[in-house]
Amino acid sequence: RYYPPGIILEYELAGELMQRSVDLLDLSADTDADVLVNAITRQESMIKESHREPLRKLVKKLQSKLRAVSTTSFSLVKELRAHILPLTNCAFNKSGDKFITGSYDRTCKVFDTDTGEEIHTLEGHKNVVYAIAFNNPYGDKIITGSFDKTCKLWDANTGECYYTLRGHASEIVCLGFNPQSTVIATGSMDNTAKLWDVETGTEVCTLAGHTAEIVSLCFNTSGDTIVTGGFDHDARVWDARTGRCVRALEGHGAEVSSTVFNYAGDRVV
Fold first, then answer.
1. How deeply is 168 buried, as exposed, middle or buried, from its count of CB atoms within 10 A (0-12, 13-18, 19+)?
2. pLDDT tens-digit map of 202-258
3. What is the DSSP letter of 70?
């Protein structure tokens, strides 16, 4: 895995093929590959002596990618004018072959990236579609959050609306899936965030504690923790399994408009 650097180990357990990720977050082009392979071998008991050379080649391959100098130049490919009112947001799926746009015209549109053709128009909201997201890395579902106080869950392939998630008392301005695509989080101008079950469309819990509007949120990689940022100048870290506030991060003198975990999940910006 090139980014973030890592190696995926496949093994069989009770007849079932399993995977284990070995993160190499500190890998650089100058890292001693032999020393790193020794460290990984000591850490992972399933790696045998016969695996050392293939493992070393994988590390070297990752390092060559880190050394590569990008010479990519960018130019305008297409200009799409599909909405009748201004856009609010856009997002790609993981593979990049589809992207979505939200608009003040109360719709979200799904496009084919290569051709620029419109695949679906997701209609049903009664106000501005402000926040949108794919369930990456899977890319088979889309969520839309609206000023009509609802979030809708859609089939990315057919455009069918699975559920309308109701419960917020004000506009939904941020949202996201957990990486496992089992939970949806929505943040609202009603000072709360809510977690929803993807399978049933039901509310799991409400994250209450901010004293002003919640305008950003992000799950960690394992999906068991979520961070929210608000107009109350604070960020809060929550246990996504229970809805309990783990920590309030105070110190900013104005709105916290963006929040994100690092890949390892032990740092928040």
1. buried
2. 999 999 999 999 999 999 999 999 999 999 999 999 999 999 999 999 999 999 999
3. P
